[in-house]
Amino acid sequence: MKAEPSPPALIATLSRPAEELSGIDRRIMFGYPALFINGNMFAGLVRDTLVFRLPETNRQNLIAGGKATPFVAMGRTMREWVAIAPMLRGDEAELRERFAKALAHTRRGAAEEPEWAPGSIGWLAVQDKSS
Q1: Separation between Cα atoms, residue 127 and residue 131, nearest integer Å
Q2: Who contacts 52 (Cβ-Cβ below 8 Å, separation ≥6)?
């Protein structure tokens, strides 16, 4: 089954930070465009939904304000991720702030995570958690 494509305008919205900031990689994740910093995804698209990896306080504030919902994929709520409400798609200032917060949070988190070598017991334990 082929994935439903994301709208071109939403792809353009996601692409802007990659064009404006250095060190951001564009990749495809689960068949959709995504942005990565130091190998870690911080924003992406799933069909017509823009998702961000954000700190707890920021996620809770967005959800409480009706600006986002917890991101659920395949029936599982994804820890640290929110789906941005459609009403924010045209709000350039709001989206820039979300991109900046997601980038900073993911960059900070990546610096704090241990780097496990493939084949080590620690690396295997990390892989088992994500399955």
Answers
A1: 7
A2: 42, 43, 68, 81, 82, 84, 98, 99, 101, 102
Q: How far apart (Å, rounded) are the C-alpha atoms in residues 85 and 122?
A: 37
In this structure, what token pair is assigned to residue 51?
């998702």
The answer to whether the beta carbons of residues 41 and 79 sit under 8 Å apart is: no
| Predicted pLDDT at 108 | 85
Cβ contacts of 18 within 8 Å, gap of 6 or more: 24, 25, 26, 35
Q: Rounded to an integer, what is the distance from CA 7 to the centroid of its chain?
A: 17
Residue 4 neighbours by CB under 8 Å, 6+ apart:
47, 48
Q: What fold characterizes domain 8-130?
A: Yope Regulator; Chain: A, (3.30.1460)
For residue 107, what is the enclosing H or E element? helix 92-112
Domain boundaries, the chain: 8-130
Q: Which two tokens stand for residue 34?
A: 């995504």
pLDDT in tens, 41-77: 999 999 999 999 999 999 999 999 999 999 998 899 9
Cβ atoms within 10 A of the Cβ of 71, count? 22
The encoded tokens of residue 47 equal: 């069909």
